[in-house]
Design brief:
single chain
């Protein structure tokens, strides 16, 4: 639920890989058996049409997965020594609080300096202009945090506020209005606009302001316990968030305003995800669920703010950003109020005069470039840093319990969205660390309908209409599949780390139990697991 409170109003608010001959023959014999009407071993009954169709469907899905992986499907399910290095040759073996903060292990000494310069700009707070530290001044005037590290704690994920009094340091609220005109609807349908922003509050709520500039609102949250019972009687207590926007600084919110709480995502492996070919992502899309497996993933089609051209979205909870450079500069702009060549406009609306009149930290870049607060040089260093935060290697990958959990993961169909393995191409560009790597991110980078429980809501607490776009093609119910690599170390990096887009899940099992929509059948299979099955599944996830 979302609530809005004010003094006037209180609203309840291919790589194509040929399968080895044994694997191929297995399929041929299977098809022959079906064609001849061979009886099954169970009750000696012939296979029904729907069973045959299901097998064909599964086979199609498997073929896509193994073609992207470059190995037979069976190899993915069994122990794969190569999977220990889930980030390929970029991976590291550190298992401490610094597990997310190290550079790619294959980075050369001559390039490592750029990584640490980018790290400095990522970690150090920006300050209000004018200041003597003119390379880091210009914060705000409206902002959420003063440093990237404030959201991405130790380069990891954020967490929701613990209670109504806790500050939302690593959680923000994205905003969108429903399209009300034919022109707006057409622009969204064609990905010619990201969203319909609020005329006063824009497309993101900033809960802080510099001196003399009122913050837009204060974010707080309360929690309601909801027990979920497994088939064997085991109970897991989930917590449902009730977000509140208090003390609006620029007038009342509209009841139809759609709000989307989002915690920061971990920074590891982003350069590898960026290097997955567009075609590999598109191959997995099935917008109309043509194969009738209940999974209808789609890719987001977004505007690159630097080029103005449409491109595949792959970053953020709704896959609303196409490249790390644009993702970074958008975060600088919307989270910290900092301008760049890519995002040159201050994060203020025309209805916020104090924000517009605030001092700027923009510096002249020369060569006819407009003055900005984040120079192209700084942007390049930060981009290199975010491309090369290494993925930790797996732990206990060959453990019997872990392997049993891995098999359960596949048996329940989790890989239908969490695509395990990709073979990255070898390029002739500057992404040297990512060239040709074999990676195991466990994501398809697609949008999926995750059900009403996880859907964005209106400020009045209602479920946002399912067909309303809130970020390019992404609707209120759709979320990009997050990568699972490194997730077993999340609590090691930050003991307060939480999961899912709004941080409601305190454990990985809680995150699984919130799955709905396209993932509802898979969740129901999880609920049938006994204690041994649950332990095995969790052991596998913790090994990632």
């Amino acid at each position: 639920m979302f609530h809005y409170k004010s003094s006037q109003k209180h609203a309840v608010i291919s790589h194509s890989h040929a399968v080895d001959s044994l694997h191929r023959n297995k399929r041929i014999w299977s098809a022959l058996a079906i064609g001849l009407g061979v009886l099954t071993m169970t009750g000696c009954q012939p296979k029904q049409d729907n069973q045959i169709a299901a097998e064909e469907k599964d086979s199609d899905k498997q073929q896509i997965i193994e073609s992207l992986a470059g190995v037979p499907y069976e190899q993915l399910i069994e122990f794969d020594p190569q999977e220990i290095k889930q980030g390929g040759d970029t991976g590291i073996t550190i298992t401490s609080a610094e597990s997310y903060s190290k550079p790619s292990s294959n980075i050369t000494p001559s390039r490592k300096g750029d990584f640490f310069i980018g790290n400095a700009f990522f970690k150090q707070p920006w300050v209000v202009a004018p200041a003597s530290t003119d390379s880091r001044d210009g914060l705000g005037a409206l902002f959420n945090v003063a440093a990237c590290q404030s959201c991405h704690i130790k380069d990891g994920r954020g967490h929701a506020p613990l209670n109504s009094e806790d500050d939302a340091d690593s959680l923000l609220i994205r905003l969108a209005m429903p399209a009300s005109t034919a022109e707006q609807q057409q622009a969204l349908a064609k990905s010619e606009a990201e969203k319909v922003p609020h005329p006063v509050y824009g497309d993101q709520l900033q809960d802080r302001g510099i001196q003399g500039v009122p913050a837009e609102a204060r974010i707080s949250v309360s929690w309601k316990d909801e027990p979920v019972t497994f088939a064997d009687g085991h109970v897991v207590t989930l917590r449902r968030p009730d977000f509140q926007l208090k003390n609006p600084g620029y007038g009342a919110f509209d009841d139809t305003l759609m709000v989307s709480p989002r915690v920061a995502l971990p920074m590891i492996g982003l350069g590898l995800l960026e290097y997955i070919p567009d075609e590999a992502v598109k191959r997995q899309a099935d917008v109309n669920d043509d194969d009738k497996d209940g999974i209808s993933g789609k890719y987001n089609w977004v505007i690159d703010p630097e080029t103005g051209k449409k491109a595949l979205g792959r970053f953020g909870w709704k896959a609303g950003q196409t490249r790390l450079l644009t993702q970074n500069m958008s975060a600088f702009n919307e989270d910290m109020g900092l301008t760049s060549r890519i995002r040159p406009i201050e994060s203020c609306t025309k209805n916020q005069p104090e924000c517009l009149a605030a001092p700027t930290g923009a510096d002249d870049q020369g060569d006819g470039k407009p003055p900005v607060e984040v120079s192209d040089e700084v942007a390049k260093f930060v981009e290199f840093y975010t491309k090369n935060l290494a993925v930790p290697n797996r732990r206990n990958a060959d453990n019997k319990t872990v392997l049993a959990g891995k098999k359960r993961f596949y048996d329940m169909g989790c890989q239908d969205c969490h695509t395990p393995r990709y073979q990255l191409p070898k390029g002739n560009d500057d992404n040297l660390e990512q060239h040709g790597q074999v990676i195991y991110p466990y994501t398809d980078l697609l949008l999926h309908d995750m059900g009403e429980d996880l859907a964005d809501r209106t400020i009045a607490g209602k479920i946002a209409p399912k067909d309303k776009q809130v970020e390019f093609l992404a609707t209120s119910h759709e979320w990009r599949t997050p990568a699972l690599w490194g997730i077993g170390l999340a609590k090691t990096v930050d003991s307060q780390a939480t999961f899912l887009h709004d941080g409601r899940a305190r454990t990985l099992m809680e995150a699984v139990l919130w799955h709905g929509g396209e993932a509802e059948p898979h969740k129901q299979q999880v609920l049938k697991l006994d204690e041994k099955g649950r332990s095995e599944l969790e052991a596998f996830l913790q090994s990632l």
